[in-house]
Amino acid sequence: MRAFDELRPPSAGRVLELWRDSRETAQDPLERALLCNGAILAECCFAQGLPVYQDASEVLNDLTGREIERLLVRLAGGGETAAQEIPADVNPAFDAARFAALGRE
Questions:
Q1: Cα–Cα dist 88/79, whole Å
Q2: What is the distance between the alpha carbons of residues 79 and 75, in angstroms, rounded to a whole number?
């Protein structure tokens, strides 16, 4: 992963534009989602005020799916600085109470 020091969240309108662009580029839903996510991150990752990636293909060639997911979660939270990390082994959708209840059944 390339080094960056800032994530700048895009406007909702810009995300919609990127989604529409990716929809025109790819028919497959998974490919379309990856292209859109790559385009979003290409516009949001900065190092010393300069873009880290030129386009979605650079993002997709540099990052794993898990890294993309973590960066998008950070963007959704407001674009914290690069120093704030989400632990790799944490699933934000995990419901500990439900898991415990299932274990008792």
A1: 18
A2: 4
